Amino acid sequence: MRNWLVTGAGGMLGQDILARLAVDGIPAVAATRTDLDITDPASVRAALAAHRPAVLINCAAWTAVDDAESREDEALRINGDGPGHLASACADTGTVLLHVSTDYVFAGNAATPYAEDAPTAPRSAYGRTKLAGERAVLKTLRDHGYVVRTAWLYGAGGPNFVRTMIRLAGERDTLEVVDDQRGQPTWGADLAGLLYDLGRGALAGTAPGGVYHGTSSGETTWYGFTREIFRLLGADPDRVRPTTSAAFTRPAPRPAYSVLGHDRFAEAGITPLRDWRTALIEALPEIHRAQTKENPA
Question: What is the pTM of this model?
Fold first, then answer.
């Protein structure tokens, strides 16, 4: 059985993917930032030649959205050039490439869910660099290149919105959260399972290459998301107060609308992710336990 290679394996999603592969006994090569520099084409080629994976899932990325505004060239090397190097090496070894991307490639001003083929128009440096990576993958790997856009990702293995809200629920009497940005909270463990299914479909020839959207079903605002987190924690949701994006000025603009459509999964015979509320009910105790273990009282 050929192994799968996961880049960015030390991050939250990378850890979730490795855990999912382990469930089915899939041999995996975990490549962290120190193990593999995706901006170095020689290192990338050497790693692919050595391991010759059946599937490569690229979770390596520059994710500091605001910092990218003043350091776009650095972000582009990781988010744009890096996936291009991976795609070229995958073409040489016949490896399926699943590249994780983002909702930030869209303008964020729609009123209905973005389809996979909707026009892209990133408004931030981060979005521009991620779009460059998408294009590099799809140009080089027309048949076995896959771009999976996700958004509002959370999990147990790293800093994210849910972990922050759990902490703030124990520290503050009230909390102001923006209510004018809509999206789909997505549990990393759910996305990991979806990527695994897509990789298997790619190997079986049942999942066509191209763009897919890997977000939970349903939609809410950050305010609505936080109220649900508080409710599940047993805290009073009315402690959460709505506010606007204008109250939290940041270097990079945030999409006002990040809801993605999932129609292409029907073509691949794969069921899209479940509703975000259902996932959160299962995810929150696990995240809470992990956070308590790392920061005991």
Answer: 0.97
